[in-house]
Design goal:
Elements: H1 3-6, H2 24-31, H3 36-42, H4 47-53, H5 56-68, E1 74-79, H6 83-87, E2 95-100, E3 106-111, E4 121-127, E5 130-135, E6 144-148, E7 153-156, E8 167-175, E9 180-188, E10 198-203, E11 208-212, E12 222-231, E13 234-242, E14 252-260, E15 265-269, E16 278-286, E17 289-297, E18 305-312, E19 321-329, E20 333-338, E21 344-355, E22 358-368, E23 375-377, E24 389-394, E25 406-408
Antiparallel strand pairs: 1-2, 1-24, 2-3, 4-5, 5-6, 6-7, 7-25, 8-9, 9-10, 10-11, 12-13, 13-14, 14-15, 16-17, 17-18, 18-19, 20-21, 21-22, 22-23
Amino acid sequence: MSQRKEARLPKILRHRTKRDDLAEEIVLEILARLPVKSLLRFRCICKTWYSCITNPNFISTHLLCYNNNHDGGYVIHMPMATSFMAYFHRPHSQICTLAFDRTFETISEFRIPFTFQSGYPRLVGSCNGILCFTDFIISKSKDVYLWNPSIRKFKRLPHTCLTQLSNVALGFRYDSQNNDYKVVRFSWTIAKPKPPPEVEVYSLSLDSWKIIELGISWRPNVYYTLTFPFVSGHLHWMIEMIDEGDAQEGHYTSMILSFDVNSEKFKELPLPDDEGNCISKCLTSFKEKLALVKFESCVPPHSMLLCSIWLMREYSVFDSWNKLCVVPVESYPNFIGFTKYGLLLVRKWSQLVSTNSELEGKDKSFLIDPKTLHEKEVSYIGNHVDNRFDIAAYMENLTLLDGENLVSY
């Protein structure tokens, strides 16, 4: 048999004839289970296949079929830009690392194909394999990018509708009801009295921003806002408020601001009541549930810290907050997140060590099982110079394959 004949595509991938005709439904079923790299090549088979693979409905079907039929998940991470780096003009890595979720073993690396004026990109979030980036120094640039490394395409979003971008919080997620991807951005000022924030939402299907109303009362004593996870169709931010009459003592109350991506409505959710000497806290997601992680100091003479993990077992129900476990840690950690399998990923500072006659602080990353408290060092993350990371789930996706204002590289 000649090499030319051996290299021919199998029947299922050849142009259909009357003799080897397959039902269209079967062909689509097979295509939906193929990797993105193969589908990109198969667009050249014929016009019918090109139309099928670039169809939004097929892209949604492929996202579910292909990724659900592959055991294990993936994460993508990159060093986090910090104010310290920007102030001292330290170089920032433009590399994103793809790794296995369960072991954090590196698979490959992607160089960010676009630049920001400040030189410090910030990962807003990842959704179905689409990465959203903005400029770490928001005053330098108002640009927001959507990037799909799987198909090597990115898109710069249109200019903002907001009049002022002094303090900004962003979120990025998928609208399952309308098969759309949305970016929400709200901006607030530090002026006194503080006016309500301005809010806008970008729709990928419409390729435009629109201003929306907050829809809830906004107290003038809000101190700052932190962006965090997507759970049950909602984006969440944790806001801190200075209690009236206690500003000098610095007594703060925390609240969750929730945004329904489908209905584009805001609401407030309370945090669990808990006594203790809290050093820091943050919202995250744990096995698709809303979770709160708190770091508290132990009662003297103990020098260890306690990491308390709270879980909202029934979304939006205050009484369903439950303390899942308490993990003792020897030194103050930098919380990074949870893996798909519920392992706690933290970064710890260690003792000063002597390197070339100089003392340097070394830090390491660990995976901690909340049930057994077993720790596993993730040494490869420590190969980076910076000690803080942006990290998000990742999967293959065909979104951004076709449309306007896309850039291929």
